[in-house]
Amino acid sequence: MRKIRITLIAAVVSAIMFALTGCGKETIQGDWQLVKEVDADGTVYTQEDLEDIGVAESYHIEEDVVSYTCHVMGQDISFDMDLVDIGNNQYQFKLKDMVFATVTLKGDTFTYTVKGEEEVDTMYFERVK
Questions:
Q1: For the chain, how many structural domains are there in total?
Q2: Is the four-CA dihedral 49, 66, 110, 22 of positive or negative sign?
């Protein structure tokens, strides 16, 4: 009987801890900036490399709205998208009925791939603190 009580108490404490910590679920809410791009051939472009060629990308995510801003060669491009949680720390950024990106969140980093005609590049974003 004592063993059952200890097991029950441990289960209740674990359930409370998961509830208080959000069940370990990470949050994608906040501000993000592009820090690295890795091309299909393995070429790595750092944030500094990208800024040198005039490319800077960022996201502001609040509730279910994703605000995207891209600075390319002196021009700003901005638009809003819908955020869809598809589970397992993966999210879709949707523009109307089109999926703009499917991102994978890992702590303070999210990644997504961009498919070209013949290659796939991976974009790395970090949370702005």
A1: 1
A2: positive
Q: How far apart are CA 117 and CA 103, in angstroms?
A: 20
Give a yes or no: residue 13 inside a domain: no
- CATH of residue 37's domain is 2.40.128.20
Asked, for residue 22, whether it belongs to a domain, the answer is no
Name which of 78, 33, 72 is nearest 52 in CA terms: 72
| pTM, full prediction | 0.77
Please state, in angstroms and rounded to a whole number, the distance separating the CA atoms of residues 41 and 59. Answer: 26
- Which amino acid makes up residue 115? K
Residue 41 has a CB neighbour count (10 Å cut-off) of: 7
Are 52 and 46 spatial neighbours (Cβ–Cβ below 8 Å)? no
pLDDT, tens only, 71-80: 888 889 999 9
Question: Can you tell me the distance from the alpha carbon of 13 to that of 84, in angstroms, rounded to the nearest whole number?
Answer: 32
Whether residue 12 lies inside any domain: the answer is no
Q: What type of residue sits at position 65?
A: V
